[in-house]
Amino acid sequence: MSANEKIPFLDLVTPHKQLQQELTAVFQQVITTGGFVGGPLVENFEKDFATFCDAKFCVGVNSGTDAVRFALTAAGVEPGDIVVTVPHTFIATTEAISQAGAHPHFVDIDDRTYTMSPKRLQEYLDRECEIVGGKTIHKKTKKHVSAIVPVHIYGQCADMDPLMEIADKYKLIIVEDACQAHGAEYFSKKQNKWLKAGSIGAANAFSFYPGKNLGACGEGGAITTNDPEMVRKMKMLREHGQVKKYYHDIEGYNGRLDSLQAGLLHVKLRHLAEWNKQRQAAAAEYQKLFASNTAVKLPFVPEWSRPVWHLFVVRVADRDGLQKHLAEAKIDTGIHYPIPLHLQNAYKSLGYKNGDFPVTEKLALEILSLPMYPQLQKAQQASVAQGVEAFVTVASV
Ligand SMILES: *Cc1c(COP(=O)(O)O)cnc(C)c1O
Questions:
Q1: Which of 210, 235, 267 is the last residue of a domain?
Q2: Between the chain's N and C termini, which has fewer beta carbons within 10 Å?
Q3: Does position 238 have pLDDT exceeding 90, yes or no?
Q4: Last residue of a domain, which of 252, 267, 282?
């Protein structure tokens, strides 16, 4: 490739071009049968996605946001409860908590893995909660703390063993936000085996937003679980609370995954393992290219983690400077995410302030997401590394 060819942040065209025939065949099938909602396309995709995640069941839904919301409700979170998550995530995590009628509370992330810190969670429980009648109660508000939502950010699982131990002790439901982690694995020392993201919590959420490791050609999401009773509830929630057509036990939502998206996702699912491998190879290449550059802090991968690299995120002192420099070199980058959730205008009413979650706050100023996708070429990565190198060298003289 030529020296001044643009390097995009992600490539949503190439994989679809490669699969164009199969994807078009799905479209043909849908428009010629009129099977737009539900039916075998959805059921077959759900079955195979559950298998991919080592889960018994999968329920296809509208979006990752709906997936988190329905997972919380089906798993037993009730309106008025407190649900604990991290401020270093996309706002959908907390939107879903609020939409389920609950209140988000935050605990900080670990400064190496960027996922929920078990230590900070334990501190929160010690400081703000007490166990009353077998339930964890928030002392100040008297609300029931019923669940935690660890977020497998950037495609790396949170440290689930200690989180499961705490959840067990305090009777907290675990809902994994696996929206960035299709196929990520966690080695549980306790169970002495690798666990797939989406197979650990009571009910777990995935997004098929186009840029995710498995993306729809539009919107989509899914929940995985091993509990048939939760499947029943989630199917009611996604379809107006009905148990059969026009018999509504509760008020639900219009939250279905449509047949066209399910069919397209099913085609793409067959390539997901291979795409994740290509992401892993690209991540290894970045790690090699930056190995000797002490000004660039690389992602940390603990021995218990096999990430799927939804994003490849580095830390540098002058992040905004580096981003601008790379943009001038036609290298696209992203920031995931620039403003921690507890400092967003939308959450002013929660009463958090700057300084409450120092690890997240510092991270937000230093992170830069480099181009990352299965089709990324080594030559492109070399150009990215050169671009970074040039800036860091100039900046340090
Ligand atoms: C993408 C994402 C979601 C929401 O998914 P949508 O399909 O866009 O609703 C939730 N949580 C995280 C961490 C995400 O990255």
A1: 267
A2: C
A3: yes
A4: 267
